[in-house]
Amino acid sequence: MQFSPRNRHLYIEIVDQGKEEEPQILLPEDYKPIKEEYIWARLIDWAPDCNGNYLDDDIVVVKQNMIEEIKTGKEIFHLVLENYVMGVLEEEESGVVCGGSLEIN
Known about the structure:
Number of helices: 0
Low-confidence stretches: 96-101
Distance between the termini: 39 Å
Number of strands: 6
Mean pLDDT: 84
Structural class: mainly beta
Strand order of the largest sheet: 4-5-1-2-3-6
Strand content: 35-45%
Order of helices and strands: EEEEEE
Radius of gyration: 16 Å
Oligomer: single chain
């Protein structure tokens, strides 16, 4: 199924940031870990009316609680409104951007 976003939305794929596993400890059953406020996402497609100068496969920093998850049958699409893109990560000469944690104050 082909998905094409509209109304200034970006179609994204959430990037695994490769966090290290913490030692196993016993936690209450109702414990929910705190989610990161900002995450990295790979840009797949964007609406024609978006204002940004995006490229395919750009890595964008987005506010996690603003990501919309749309389920259609067996497929899941993740969308975020262009306003919630905090920036675009670029590769450095020494390697790829992915693989670390992100903290914005």
